[in-house]
Design brief:
It is a single chain. It is built from 29 helices and 27 strands. It is of the alpha+beta class. The protein has five domains: 10-185, ATP-grasp fold, A domain (Dna Ligase, domain 1, 2-Layer Sandwich), CATH 3.30.1490.20; 192-323, ATP-grasp fold, B domain (D-amino Acid Aminotransferase, Chain A, domain 1); 335-474 and 666-734, no CATH class; 485-663, no CATH class; 760-873, 3-Layer(bba) Sandwich (Glucose Oxidase, domain 1), CATH 3.50.30.10. Helix 11 crosses helix 14 and helix 15 runs antiparallel to helix 22 (638-654). The longest helix is centred in the middle third of the chain and has 45 residues, at 400-444. The protein is elongated, with a radius of gyration of 33 Å.
């Protein structure tokens, strides 16, 4: 027990000298919280130097070490004997006069004869890998200088309880290396108290925060004598995801001379302790503390007089395995794994049905294209789509020999690639899209309830196979758009542009594309609805979810039945044309056609008259484009004119094709989901799964086996436990951020060249409050961040918010009408987010790799779409 170096005996609570060495783990944590401006009750520290002074003044050091040496971790009797001897020595000692005076003076500064909490704080306590929770004493409702001094001595003695001695011995901590400080704080007369876990301690989900709450002081929860209310908060949205109100039988209350446990009044036992606003405020404090420490935290809190106080925070020391970042080992060495192309439309872990049905079909389509186009040398005959930790990755091999072959084959391959790009549009429009539409259309009018399950599954497989072939075929269209824009931009910047000229982007805006047509259709419907008074009023005052629930009902929710019928007919036509746009390519996620609430929120925005007229915006962009083209063409000589006109014509032709092609990747998803949900309905009725949508959590072979059994009138087995485990696994994986390239070391290299800068997301973290990405749409804006995880949260988006998301797909386009800026985890300069942000004229920073983890809804952020930097100011 080496004596600490000389230092002050008492420190203010937020003193910069309040280190672990001087005030212990708990004290250092409270000092850090207080210095950060968090609502910590006022108080002061009695340092380890004070403890050392007390031990030395009373000549206790040698006796303490001798008694401790006789204890054995495996023998409780020796631990208790050593504890009794040491605690007796400490309790009988005399407090040095100057130390007693310093404690009395600091106590007086808190406000006279007030109630305080006196808490032990050991130097080996509340560490990231050691807890010591509950092993040393806390004394509540202590009054007067003498009472504080007596409680301080008792806290010092608690460093040597039998349990604490045994724990240190088992952990290999020498008695010479420990010391103890004490924290004295004004006691919060808690009306309610509890604990915040900034990561879900049960499921391991990092994107969830859990709040426990009970009446009275927090001792009843910490001691386990009461079952508290449990509230789960989604950390990305800040909203309550679930709440369980417990039967709270007991609570700890304050008395004049201490505390007492007593029954909770009957009318409060089953009442929620926290209002939603209080829970959300606690969640914000918890996330701020987690960000301050950079790790999952266990935070104790209390409320009094409507105010929230933080009374303790420690790192979570025992976490489910799911909280640890997974080991991103590659399945096969010598291969590269990239989250690009279709993986950009699959931001979340895959549902088991998509992973086992769609992923193999995507691989088949890729390899069929390579074979039919004689492109094996370029993309490899072994290219495939695989899953790693439930996330989608492209897998392919890169070898030095293949690099050499490509080099020598370049004269043949380059013309072949150009021919593919030129013919790709025709193949898309004349072959793969009609084939896809036919596969889906064959089922759109059939009575699904009368069809055998195996036939339904066979039809579902046909639709997914057609979708895979469609997506693979449009790669040439997407490639043509990307290449044409890149070539045009380079020609314009190097051979045409002057300092005062607009950017190359101006030449590629204002064209018709599927997202723009969808927005104009919705806007036109809103303008029509504005002319129908009662309908317009209903749409303005009713939530999108409630309107969606009433959609199609007759006679309808308003007295003007004719307007309602006309509205439902017009909106149904809109959904028929645009409702297959995907939020997420995984067909376990719904589409607007079946749940239009998110689209209706944007419609309501237009009805209110707040949105900009998309017709006017497009016309203005087209006029600026034409003016820029005329100005540039008028001053060019023959050679530059010919080259510029050629690349301009190519880029402008390809500009809208990318969005048109992507808009139809979910063309078959509405009917496919109806088919699969019909399968799920019958399986749930047979007891094979719990509910209809659990079908998406089956593997393809399980679904086929169950369908075969049910068609034959046999049992389908019970998959409910497996589905529950898979949902938990999905939630765990959803809390991590998958690398964009594997292996992590050396990933993102193509034939020896680093191409990581071309990836759809960055890896690594920028310093301080900056987040770096790709500047995809120019401009600078400051506003309130709104983190949107999926369509179920679209209603949270408010006009002027900055949209923060993992990715955006065509179905996210309605949010761009509300957004003042866009930030994504995944996406590049030619992604959907970039192209639509440009059309809307809002700054965008994409491919940050970490925005949804570092930005919370409500943060004040500045988006600089020109430099590709986001600044976060809470």
């Amino acid at each position: 027990m080496t004596a600490p170096r000389t230092g002050p005996f008492v420190l203010e609570l937020d003193s910069p000298q309040a280190t672990v060495e001087s005030v212990g783990g708990k004290g250092a944590s409270l000092a850090r919280l207080s210095a950060a401006g968090l609502p910590v009750p006022p108080g002061f520290h009695i340092t380890t130097q004070a403890y050392s002074r007390y031990v030395d003044e009373n000549h206790l050091r040698d006796a303490i070490l001798a008694a401790e040496a006789q204890a054995r971790a495996t023998d409780p009797a020796t631990l208790d004997r050593a504890s009794e001897q040491i605690q007796s020595l400490i309790s009988q000692g005399t407090m040095p006069a100057d130390l007693a005076e310093a404690i009395r003076r600091s106590y007086g500064h808190l406000g006279g004869d007030i109630a305080v909490a006196v808490r032990s704080s050991a130097t080996a306590e509340d560490m990231p890998t050691l807890s010591f929770a509950g092993q040393m004493d806390t004394y509540l409702n202590v009054r007067g200088g003498d009472g504080v001094i007596d409680s301080v001595k008792r806290c010092w003695a608690s460093l040597w309880t039998g349990r604490a001695i045994g724990y240190r011995k088992r952990q290999g901590i020498r008695p010479e290396d420990v010391a103890i400080a004490v924290v004295v704080q004004q006691l919060v007369p808690a009306e309610a108290a509890g604990v915040i876990f900034t990561a879900n301690p049960v499921t391991g989900a990092r994107n969830e925060l859990v709040i426990n709450a009970s009446w009275g002081l927090g001792e009843a929860i910490v001691s386990g004598r009461v079952t508290p209310d449990t509230i789960v908060v989604n950390k990305q949205t800040g909203r309550i995801a679930s709440q369980e109100v417990a039967d709270k039988e007991a609570m700890t209350v304050r008395l004049d001379d201490g505390t007492r446990e007593e029954p909770v009044p009957a009318e409060r036992r089953r009442r929620a302790v926290l209002e939603p606003a209080q829970a959300e405020e606690l969640a914000k404090l918890g996330m701020k503390i987690e960000e301050l420490y950079g790790r999952a935290m266990d935070v104790e809190w209390a409320t009094s007089g409507g105010r929230i106080f933080i009374v303790q925070a420690r790192p979570v020391t025992v976490l489910p395995e799911s909280l640890a970042a997974p080991e991103w080992e590659v399945p096969l060495r010598g291969r590269q794994y990239w989250r690009s192309s279709v993986a950009e439309l699959l931001p979340d872990p895959l549902s088991p049905l998509f992973a086992t049905l769609a992923v193999p079909l995507w691989t088949e389509a890729l390899q069929a294209m390579a074979k039919s186009r004689r492109m094996q040398l370029l993309i490899g005959r072994d290219v495939e789509l695989v899953t790693i930790h439930e996330y989608a990755y492209y897998s392919f091999s890169l070898t030095a020999w293949r690099a050499v072959r490509l080099l020598f084959a370049a004269p043949v391959l380059i013309p072949r690639v150009i021919r593919m790009m030129r013919s790709g549009e025709a193949k898309w429009t004349n072959e793969t899209r009609p084939r896809y539409a036919k596969a889906a259309g064959a089922w759109s009018e059939r009575d699904l309830a009368t069809i055998p399950l195996l036939e339904l599954l066979s039809g579902a497989r046909d639709i997914v196979a057609a979708a895979a072939a469609y997506y693979v075929s449009i790669q040439t269209v997407l490639g043509g758009s990307n290449v044409s824009e890149a070539i045009f931009t380079n020609v314009y910047n190097h051979l045409v542009r002057r300092k005062s000229d607009p950017t190359a982007l101006i030449f590629l805006l204002g064209f018709e594309s599927a997202p723009i047509r969808a927005e104009k259709s919705l806007y036109d419907l809103a303008i029509w609805a504005q002319t129908r008074g009662e309908l317009a009023e209903y749409l303005s005052r009713t939530s999108g979810a409630d309107i969606a629930a009433a959609f199609g009902s007759q006679p309808g929710p308003i007295a003007d039945g004719e307007s309602w019928r006309e509205f439902t007919s017009r909106f149904a036509e809109h959904l028929n044309r645009f409702g297959h746009a995907v939020y997420n390519l995984d067909f376990a996620t719904g589409v607007p056609a079946e749940d239009p609430g998110a689209v209706i929120e944007t419609l309501r925005y237009f009805v209110s008259g707040q949105g900009r007229n998309p017709h006017e915006r497009q016309a203005a962009a087209a006029a600026a484009r034409e003016l820029a083209a005329e100005t540039a063409l008028a001053r060019l000589g023959v050679l530059r004119l010919r080259l510029f006109k050629s690349v301009l014509r190519w880029a402008q032709h390809c500009a809208p094709l990318r969005e048109d092609a992507l808009a139809d990747v979910g063309l078959g998803w509405p009917v496919l989901r109806r088919m699969l949900r019909e399968v799920g309905r019958r399986m749930a009725a047979a007891g094979a799964i719990a509910e209809r949508d659990d079908v998406f959590w089956l593997k393809w072979e399980e679904a086929e086996a169950a369908a075969r059994g049910l068609d034959a009138g046999q049992a389908a087995g019970d998959h409910r436990r497996a589905i529950s485990e898979r949902r938990e696994s999905w939630r765990r994986e959803h809390g991590v951020t998958p690398p964009v390239a594997l292996p992590i070391k050396g990933g993102g290299r193509l034939f020896g060249f680093d191409v990581s800068h071309l990836m759809p997301a960055r890896s690594g973290r920028a310093a301080g409050n900056l987040i770096k990405g790709i500047g995809a749409s120019p401009g600078r804006v400051t506003g309130t961040a709104r983190v949107i995880c999926g369509p179920e949260e679209f209603a949270l988006m408010k006009p002027g918010d900055i949209l923060v998301a993992k990715i955006t797909t065509p179905a996210w386009t309605p949010l761009f009408a509300l957004a003042s800026g866009v930030v994504t985890d995944v996406g590049g300069p030619l992604s959907h987010s970039s192209i639509v942000a440009r059309e809307y004229g809002v700054p965008a920073v994409l491919g940050t790799g970490e925005a949804t983890r570092r930005i919370r809804s409500g943060h004040r952020v500045t988006v600089d779409g020109s430099s590709g930097v986001v600044r976060v100011d809470e």
